Amino acid sequence: MTKPQSASVKVCKIAIPVPLHRLFDYLPPDDVDSSQLKPGIRVSVPFGKSCKTGVLIEICRHSEIPNRRLKAIEKVLDAQPLLSQQDMRLLHWASRYYHHPLGEVMATAFPVALRKGKAAQGQHEKAYCLSEKGELVQPEQLQRAPKQQAMLALFQQSSTPLNAAALSAWQRNWRGTLKALRDKELVTETRLAVIPAPPTPAQPTLKANPQQQQAIDDICAARGEFAVFLLEGVTGSGKTEVYMQVIDQVLQQDLQILVLLPEITLTPQLEQRFRQRFAAPIVSSHSKLTDNERLNAWLQMQQGTASIMLGTRSALFTPLKNPGLIILDEEHDSSFKQQEGFRFSARDVAVVRARNLHIPIVLGTATPSLESLYNVKQKRYRLLHLPKRAGNAIEPKFQLLDIRNKKIQDGLSDLLISEIRKTLEKQEQVLLFLNRRGYAPVQMCHSCGYVSRCRRCDANMVIHYDENRLRCHHCGAEQSLPRQCPACQSGELRSIGLGTERIEKTLAELFAANKVVRLDRDTTQRKGSLENYLQRINRGDADIILGTQMLAKGHHFPNVTLAALLDVDSGLFSTDFHSAEKLAQMIVQVAGRAGRAEKQGKVILQTRQPDHPLLVTLLSKGYQAFARTALEERRLALLPPFSHQALLRVHAMNAEAPQVFLNAVKNVLTAINPGKTLVLGPVPAPMAKRAGQFRFQLLLQSEQRKELHSLLDRLIAEIEQIPESKKVRWSLDVDPVDL
Ligand code: ADP
Ligand code: ZN
Ligand code: ZN
After folding, report:
1. Where is the Helicase C-terminal domain (predicted)?
2. Ligand 2 centroid to 412 CA: how many Å?
C-alpha cells in the first residue's frame, strides 16, 4: 500500500530556459523557509547533467510526477523577486501571444549575468562608517591623537558612509588615520552601491516650433495614462528635440524613461545629446557592453537610481521602479523584431507594456510602418506630424535616373558620375548606397557557365577580392578564390553583378584624388571601427561614403549633399509582400542623409523601371501617399494588418523530413481548424537549404486574431505528439516580417 502524500509537501513550478512548452516541477530546498519562496525569484536547479537558472512561477500541492522522482531546488538566488508583478504579467502575456516557452521568455528579461545565476548586486565600492562603539565615543577622548579626533568628528557629523573620494576631499593623507580608527574598532568598512553621477548639462532647451510644441503638449497631457503616439517626421524635423522636451517634464515628476533604439551604433550619439541636456543619471544597454555593465544598468533602473535607459531591443524588459514614459525611435526598423529563439516584436510588446503600466509611449519615425499607420486609422494610435525640417535645413530634391540604354560602368552611370564630380568640386560629400557587400555576388565561368554555389546552402558564393576568398553570406562557408573553373579548368572566370567592394575599386579609379570610405559589415567588423569611420566622415576626412543599409540608419552627415541609390530595381521584385514597404522606407531613409544642414541635398535613384508605380508615387507624392496605396493593396489582398499570420518554420538534415512533418501538421490543423483560418503550404522556404539544413514552412492566416491564436494553442499541445516532430526542428513566428 502506498503512503498518502503528506499535505504539506509542496511542489515548485519552475520556468527554465529550454525550448519546451512546459514548466518543471521541483521540491523546495530543505534549508529554506517556505516564506522565502516567492513567485518571481530566481532559483538554481539541477537539469539533466548540468544546473540551470530558472524562475519560480508558482507553488502547488501536487505534481503529476511522484515526489520521490522529483529533484530539489539547489539554491534560491534572490531574496525578493527582481521583476514586479506587472513585469511578470507582461512576460506571461508575451509567452502566450508568441506561443513561446515561458522559461525562454523569462530569460530574455534578465541581463546575461543574472541568467547565469550571478547575484543581483551592482557595482560596489568600499566605504566607511562608525561602529556602534564609534557612535558613543566622544572625540575628546582622542585628545592625544588630534588627526584621529578630527576624523572621528567628521564621521560623527556625516549622515552617510564616506568613500575614498569623500575622505580625500577632506584630507590628503587620510589612510593612516583611518587605519588607526579601524584598529580601535571605532570605524568599520561597508559597501556602497556606485550610483551613476548625473551629468552637468550644457545645452539649453531649444525653442520648439509650433508643430513640435503641439506634439510635446499632446504627449505631456497623456502622462499617467496609456496612450500611443506615432510621431512622424522626416529626418531632421526635430523628433529628438520633442523627445528631450517631453523627457524633461517626465523627469520633473521623478519618473523614469525607457528609450529604445534599433542599433547600438546610434546609442552613443543619442546618449551624448542626452548628457548635454539632462542633469539625470543615464544608463545604456546594448551588446557592446560587458555583462557587468549591463547588469549595473539593469539594476539601476530596477532600483530607481538611474532615470533614463537607452537601449536596443533587449532592453525592452528592463524593470522600471517608477515608470513614466517609453520612447521607441525608428519604429519601422526591422531590427526591433527578434529573428531567432523568442521571436518577438519589441515595438508591439513595448505598446503592451505601456498599456500595463498606464504610461504613454511615443513611436518615432520618418517612415511609419504600415501597421502603425493602420493603427492610427483605427484610432488606436494618435498621429503627431512634424511636416518640415527643423532649424534651417532644406528638403532634398529627388531624381529618378533612367539608366536604360545608358552607358554604365560597374554600376555607375555617366550621369551619376558627373553629378558626383560636381558635388566633390564644391567640397561637399557624396553618399552612395548599395545593399550588397562583397565584390560581386556571382562567380561564373565564361567557357562553360559554371557558377560557384555554396555546398551547404541554396545560394551562390560571393566574391571577396580583398581577402581573395569566396564566401557564403548565409552559412559563413568560405574557400580561396579559384583561378580555374572547377568544372572545365578554363581560366576565364568572371565576376557577375555588383557589391560594395567592386564599386569602391571603381570609385578609386574614377576619383583617384578623393578619399572613399566604405561602410559595410566587412569593413566595420572590428570593435570601434564604425565609430572611427563616422568620426572621419564628420571631420571631412572622406569625400565619398559608400555603404550598405548600415548607412541608412540615423547617422548624421551634415556635409553630404548628394545621395544615390545605385540599384533600386532589385528591391522591386520580391516574393515577400513586405518588400515594397521596406524599399520605400530605405529610399526615404537614405534621402534623409542628404542636405541635413543648410545646404540643399539631391537624391538620385538609378533605375531601369522609371515608371514603376511604387517609385512614381513615392517620389511624386511622398511616403504618406505611397503608404496609403500600399495599405489599400494589402486590404484588397487581405494581407496584414488586415489579417494575422503565423509562420511555422521547419528544418532538418534530412531532405524529406520537414515536408513529411508539415504534412502531418496540416492534417492535425484540418482536424481542429474551426474553418476560417487559411493554412497555406507546406512550401519550401525562400532559401530551401541553408547551412546543410533543408527548410520548409507553413503559413497560417486569419482575419480573426483570437481564432488564429486558439488554433495555435491547440496545435502546440498536439505538435509534440506527431512522431515526425522528433526528426525535425521547428519554430513558430507570430506576425512574421520576412516570409
Ligand atoms: P530628428 O530627430 O527628427 O532627426 P533632431 O531633433 O535631431 O531631428 O533635429 C535636427 C536638427 O534640428 C538638430 O540639429 C536640432 O538641434 C535642430 N532643431 C531641432 N528642433 C529645433 C528647433 N525648435 N529650433 C532650432 N533647431 C532645432
Ligand atoms: Zn568552366
Ligand atoms: Zn552557405
Report:
1. 480-637
2. 29
Residue nearest to atom 19 of ligand 1 (CA): 238
| Residue closest by Cα to atom 20 of ligand 1 | 238
- What's the gap in Å between 451 CA and the centre of ligand 3? 14
Indicate the SS3 state at residue 550.
Answer: helix
For residue 554, what pLDDT is reported? 64
Nearest one of 286, 302, 279 to 121, comparing CA atoms? 302
CA distance 619 to 601: 15
Side-chain-side CA neighbours of 670 within 13 Å: the count stands at: 8
Q: Is 60 annotated as a binding residue?
A: no
Is 220 annotated in a binding site? The answer is no
Q: What pLDDT shows up at residue 387?
A: 81
pLDDT of residue 1: 39
pLDDT at residue 4, as a whole number: 44
Per-residue pLDDT, 478: 95
pLDDT of residue 288: 82
Nearest listed ligand to the Cα of residue 492: 2
Q: Element (H or E) spanning 303, and its range? A: helix 291-303
Residue type, 287: S
3-class secondary structure, 1: coil
Q: Tell me: is residue 485 an annotated ligand-binding position.
A: yes
Please name the residue whose Cα sits nearest to atom 24 of ligand 1: 391
Question: How far, in Å, CA of 586 to CA of 591, rounded?
Answer: 8
- List Cα–Cα distances, 628 to 114, 392, 618, 639, in angstroms: 45, 29, 11, 14
User: What's the distance, CA 323 to chain centroid?
Assistant: 20
Three-state DSSP state, 519? strand
Helix (H) or strand (E) holding 136: helix 132-136
Whole-number Cα distances in Å, 669 to 576, 664, 666, 716, 719: 24, 9, 5, 11, 10
Neighbours of 540 (CB within 10 A): 12
pLDDT for position 729:
95
Ligand with the closest atom to the CA of 478: 3
As given in the structure block, the three cell numbers for residue 562 are 548628394
Q: How far apart are CA 57 and CA 39, in angstroms?
A: 5
Residue 595: what pLDDT? 66
Strands in 454-500 per DSSP E: 462-464, 469-471, 478-480, 493-496
Quickly tell me which residue has 561614403 as its cell.
545
Is the Cβ–Cβ distance between 278 and 308 less than 8 Å? yes
Ligand nearest to the backbone CA of 207: 1
The Cα 333–Cα 354 span in angstroms is 19
302 Cβ contact list (under 8 Å, min separation 6): 82, 318, 319, 320, 321
Under 8 Å between Cβ of 232 and 366? yes
Residues enclosing ligand 1, CB less than 6 A? 206-209, 212, 233, 235-241, 390-391
Q: Atom 11, ligand 1: which residue's CA is nearest?
A: 236
DSSP states along 695-726:
EEEEEEEES-HHHHHHHHHHHHHHHTTSGGGG
What crossing angle do the helices spanning 210-221 and 239-252 adopt, rounded to 10°?
40
Q: Which residues of the chain have pLDDT under 70?
A: 1-9, 196, 265, 389-394, 554, 595-598
Enumerate residues 6+ apart whose C-beta is below 8 A from 385: 211, 232, 233
Distance in angstroms (rounded) separating the CA atoms of residues 447 and 435: 30
Q: In the 8-state DSSP scheme, what is residue 72? A: B
